[in-house]
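note to self: dont lose this again. the chain is below, predicted strucutre after it. 405 aa total, dont forget to put it in the shared folder this time
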Amino acid sequence: MTTTSTERVTFGPDRLTRLITEIAEGALERERTGERPFAVIDLVRESRLGALRVPSADGGGGASLRDLFATVIALAAADVNVAHILRGHFAFVEERLRLGGAERRRAIDLALSGMIVGNASTELGSAPAGAFTWQTKLTPDGDGYRLNGRKFFTTGTLYADYAEVLASNPEGATVIALVPTDRAGVTVLDDWDGMGQRATGTGTAIFDDVAVSADELLQFAPPDADTEPPALYLSGAFFQLYVTALEAGVLQALRDDAVAHVLQRPRSFAWAPTTTPADDPLLQREIGEIAAAAYASEATVLAAADALAAAFDADVAGTDPGLDLAHEASLRAAAAKIVVDGLAQKSASQIFDVGGASVVRQAHLLDRHWRNIRTLASHNPTSYKAQALGAYYVRQTRLPGSGYF
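---
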């Protein structure tokens, strides 16, 4: 397991720019060859980027939530696989900072050390997503426990030092175990076969009689069917907005690739309005629409991040007992997804209109943008978001309080 330093972390604009530039180098070749970005994640560890949101007073980067999401967008523009791999880690840190207690210090120390946390929540099966019923079980064993189960959609865990595992205890309640990925009985498979996000390790994690100590169990704020609103608006909004931020980053990469392709085109069609593709007003219009979509998507995500930050601060201060600000943050995250999904999918098709048949050649790999966007947009169907948003505005029906919504 890789560890680095727990000294103070600083992230000035120049340092972040250099890191993101280094991550971008070789991203296209990794996509072409199927190389997994283990070396890039080691670079993330060494830079201790995972401590970006840790407060400055605790030795971290001191970034605001807006800063974090702006960084995620820039990372996704450089290599969306790498940005997605870190989703579970940033969510883990965010949740521990919000809930406080002794676990806050543990999360801070882990992030400052450069270690990465992966996600091991979802299971395949007949139980509805978001139902918080798990086949993965945690059973008592002396002074500790044993963990047994199988998870899927474990994004980032293939590269992580720890896995945050959701399981059921003997009473059927949800518990969280923070388990080292190199512990006996933990197996992480690189078996994700999605058409996009191919290198994120979004596959299977197996926990076979894994020893878990009592101090490796984390606080969990479960949904309460008898309490309105449910208690998962904040964590759910963070997870969902993160995916939308990834799409916004892909849009920026798509814009840059569209410009580069038009500039390198040596010829146009005989009936085109100009002989030079870069001067063709029709192609300029396509690129202008893609660029506008990239701009609007980033602005939308950052505005939703501001709402999430207000809810986070109020929750920590205890000034939002009804979770009204948390619900507002969830509303904005849902609205952002609806808008950005539409813009991103349209733009991912438009890029093929800036060139002739040569634009679809594997040498350019422009299809990766569509594949990645379509895969990201499939995280929780947009239609459910739109219906729930409409029900709120028409009937004031609150959104589902699930981290999966």
